[in-house]
Design brief:
Length: about 120
């Protein structure tokens, strides 16, 4: 039962951050869904960082539901990314839809890597 509470708290925090980012960035993102990309990149970085910082520690087991499932799950937005990519395609912004897919995949994988590398510095 305790894990459900941690997931609930982390998910609420991650979702609130994602919503706040979209509200702040929306005026700047005319066509391209920058807020979703940024939310996914930040979530991937935090995930990588968390995995390294808690490696071989009991804190991984106790904080994993809060950070990985809750916060990163609430912050990352694969369904939103998929829908926004579909909307770009439907609006015939084919180049933007392709760029969104490649940037999201490449930058998010890079963010996991950077989070891991950053965590190893501590």
């Amino acid at each position: 039962m305790k894990n459900f509470i941690w997931i609930f708290i982390g998910g609420g925090l991650g979702s609130t951050l994602r919503y706040s980012m979209s509200r702040l960035i929306y005026p700047l993102a005319i066509i391209f869904p920058m807020a979703t990309l940024l939310a996914n990149v930040i979530s991937c970085f935090i995930l990588g960082l968390f995995l390294v910082l808690t490696r071989d520690k009991n804190s991984y087991i106790s904080l994993s539901p809060l950070v990985i499932t809750g916060f990163c799950g609430g912050l990352s937005t694969f369904s939103t990314f998929s829908y926004e990519t579909y909307q770009l395609y439907q609006q015939e912004y084919y180049t933007y839809s392709i760029i969104n897919v490649f940037l999201s995949i490449l930058i998010c994988i890079l963010s996991i890597y950077l989070g891991i590398k950053t965590g190893r510095m501590f």
